Amino acid sequence: MIQAAKAAAAAGRQSEADQLLSRLFQLAPGHPAVLTELGLRRMQQGEVQQARAFFERATRADPKHPALWSNLAASLHALGLEAEERRAIEQALTLEPRHLPALLQKATMLEQAGQPRHAARIFRTALATVPADANPPAPLAAALEHARLAVRADDAALLESLDSRLAPLRPQSGAVARRFEECLGLFTGRRPRFASQPTFLYYPGLPTVEFFDREHFPWLETVEAAGAVLRAELETVLAGDAAGLRPYVDYESALPLDRWRELNRSRRWSAYFFWNEGVAQEDHLARCPGTADLLRNLPLCDIGGHGPTAFFSILDAHTRIPPHTGVTNARVTVHVPLIVPPGCAFRVGGEVRTWVPGQAWVFDDTIEHEAWNDSDAPRGILIFDVWNPYLSAPERALLRATIEGIGSYYGEKTLPQ
Predict the structure, then answer these.
(1) Interhelix angle for 32-44 vs 66-78, to 10°?
(2) Which residue among 28, 244, 357, 371 sits deepest, i.e. has the most Cβ atoms within 10 Å of its Cβ?
């Protein structure tokens, strides 16, 4: 009958809704659900004093239900009874400290009392209770959006207040600057936190780094200096050896493809391999001698049957590589941009970067990352893997033997693409 009354009211049949609720009240005058519906109905009709009476009866009938105290607080707020409203909210939160409506009510009270900083802290707590895929009704959605705006305003005010304190200490560039700004971003919620999530093998104790500092890779300047040669050979490949390009994602259709379904066996994301899971592609190396010479002199991740992997990566126009993670944090990935039309970008964890031809970077591909090309032309970069710079030589030897041993044990490819 309650659902029927709600449906009638939603359809504009107000008289029918009132008749149903009146009959309900006659049948079960002390039932907290009935009292709650009558109170909500009176609130909609602007009869706040009567709504308060029904809500108070509901809390007496079921004093351990936080939603009933939250409803009572709403009526008390409408009546301007601040002290009683506060008591009702605290009672709701005593019963359920993460009760979303009560948290929003408490934060709003603090905000209206001229305490925006304290309100923002409660709004943060409230927002943390909302699942990422939630689809709240319109009134609650509006309250949540207000909470988000209040938190953003508080973040901005906090950063502004810190500026003068930090000014003499704050570095403008370098590793310390990057880590510190990331710290502030995480604290204020402007930047989400990502962890290493390899799909195959995790090596503990290594720093979780989205983009590595260049100081770990002194050979990067040599790589960048070869940019013109690399680009010329990539252009030669695109013009004369399109048959050598193969889909980078290549799974059997019977496997659970999930995020890779759209790109599986598609040349929209293709690769021109120089080494593929440790196997040299001699014809490709011969066609691109400058690229081959460069790669042979780099500390590539060498694991029998699995590495190195090095290739030209071609991402077609209007194509997106979905968020994903790599196989192991024992290796890291190098990008050397060669052909980059406008509208191309790359995200690792919480940082988005734009490729610039001639400027290489190294990242941990076990942190969630994605790429997109929104332009009308293909994007081309050189990609290869090297050992994680925080691994010692003995650790590399142990990992090499372990991964090769796993592959030998199963007699099949161990590292998925």
Answers:
(1) 30
(2) 371
